[in-house]
Amino acid sequence: MPQRHTSLLFIAPAVRAATTMLVSAGLFLSPSALTAQAPAASVQLAGALQAAPAMERDKATVFGFLEDGSMTTLQEGGGALICLADDPTRDGWNVACYHESLDPFMARGRELRAQGVTDAGELAQRRWAEADAGTLLMPEVPATLYVLTGDGFNADTNTVENSAIRWVVYTPWATSESTGLSAQPTAPGAPWLMFPGTAGAHIMITPATPGAGN
Q1: Strand pairing of 71-75 and 61-65?
Q2: Most exposed of 49, 115, 128, 193 (fewest Cβ within 10 Å)?
Q3: Would you place residue 152 in the very low, low, confident or very high pLDDT band (cuts 50, 70, 90)?
Q4: How far apart are CA 64 and CA 44, in angstroms?
Q5: 109 in helix, strand or coil?
Q6: Number of C-beta neighbours around residue 202 at 10 A
Q7: End-to-end CA gap in the chain
Q8: Secondary structure element (H or E) that encloses residue 107, with its range
């Protein structure tokens, strides 16, 4: 059985402090970060917060990018959400917010990418193995990730062009048997369980696009 950990309610301040240290050390650099052209901090902040529920935006901690590609704190919040601005070195426009209990998992992924691990399968397997071994903390209760994509962010109108949202609820080591959810999509917008039985098990909820059916 995977090792379970003591309540994350008691380690959240340490998790946030560890993230700040990693940001300061520049460990989140992507391979092409030194060529990044980062938008103004105010634009990054406004764009990143689009992924968060409106009532949580003022309280979220937000990380963005400097001109040299390193990450910086755009907003220090006291709430439960951590948000990431769009990475200017990666294709497309993508921002995300997640519950602080997911931060060890997410930060480890960024650290591995900075070390040159870019294959999605290897990133997943490395983190799952560490979680199974008890060296990577995972949430003990469901924890949500909000992902917002689009063609770009219009700072003048504070809107995302052709936006698409999806909700991901991490439930480490959950299975179809323990949740009653299918391990495959069953209908547009219906929840389903991805990577069942692994440390990265999560419920996917992707709203149906217009014309996709009921």
Answers
A1: antiparallel
A2: 115
A3: very high
A4: 6
A5: helix
A6: 23
A7: 40
A8: helix 103-114
